[in-house]
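hi!! sorry for the late reply, been swamped w classes. u asked for the two structures so here they r. pasted raw, havent cleaned anything up. first the sequence of the first protein and right below it the tokens
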Amino acid sequence: MKKLAPLAGLAFALAVILAVPALAAGKLKTAVFAGGCFWSMQHDMEPIPGVVSTVVGYSGGDLKNPTYENHPGFYEALKVTYDPSKVTYPQLVARYLRTTDPTDGGGAFCDRGPSYRPAIFVDGAQERAAAEAAIKVAHNELDKPIATKVLALKNFYPAEDYHQEYAKKNPAAYARYRQGCGKDRVIKALWGPR
């Protein structure tokens, strides 16, 4: 029986080691933003220190399981999973606003229409207060009305696989799209150099 004790201790230690990532994952949070083409949002938000992962998709509509071809009432959105010990929700919101034109309620850059409008989807009063505070700061900085909506998060559906990580999988096509759309030029004119 004594020979099994070291093995039991090893099994316990192994179980603890394997549980650490699961415990850390429980500390992660998510945020959902809309601000034009979800490819560009993913491209701009993913490199932020503290962002663990991103998923492009659809948020805000009522249809179950929307698709790219059929998502009426939905915004193209980005779900950001982040480590709040490295980046806070208010910091993410501030960064998001500076990757969009929050003054344009009709779309974003060359992408026009309801799917491309800017919005911050909030989960609870704390996120709503942070989003509204960031919008007030943006209004003061830009001295322009802010069109970005603050909406209650009611759903998020991941987009099709071919949309996920589009900029990484198709760098040349994405670069042409981004340049042709004028995003960087508009952002620089609005917010100044990064």
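now the second protein. again sequence first, tokens right under
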Amino acid sequence: MIRILLADDNPAVRHYLRGLLEQQEGWHVSDEASDGAEAVQRFERGRHDLIVLDFQMPAMNGLEAAKQIIRESPKTPILMVTLYLSEQLSAEAQKAGIKGTCPKTHISCVVDAVSALLREETYFPELAPSQFPA
């Protein structure tokens, strides 16, 4: 069973992502967090195979939370999801050690991205101009 830590400040998005992830055979959302600091704490207390992390959250954004988690556990794959995905943010995520990014505007890519990370691949889709925030 793949244990996934899910962090997003929006309860509706967490609920939707949990449902999407748990439709996959062998995947289980083992814990949830509502901000970046809580994600770091829950990671430290639990055993997780993979993390799905929102970028824009209160207390600590996803990029900062990922940096802390990666310092403790560099092999744990992290997928960052965000409404504000840009080439610059993807580059920053890669530099921090995040293994993939996925725009919330195409949230169905989360399953493909998690699958890639579980195969020890990365997932950084090219962004079409329509995916950039106005």
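hope this helps!! also noticed smth abt the second:
Residues 129-134 have pLDDT under 50 and may be disordered.
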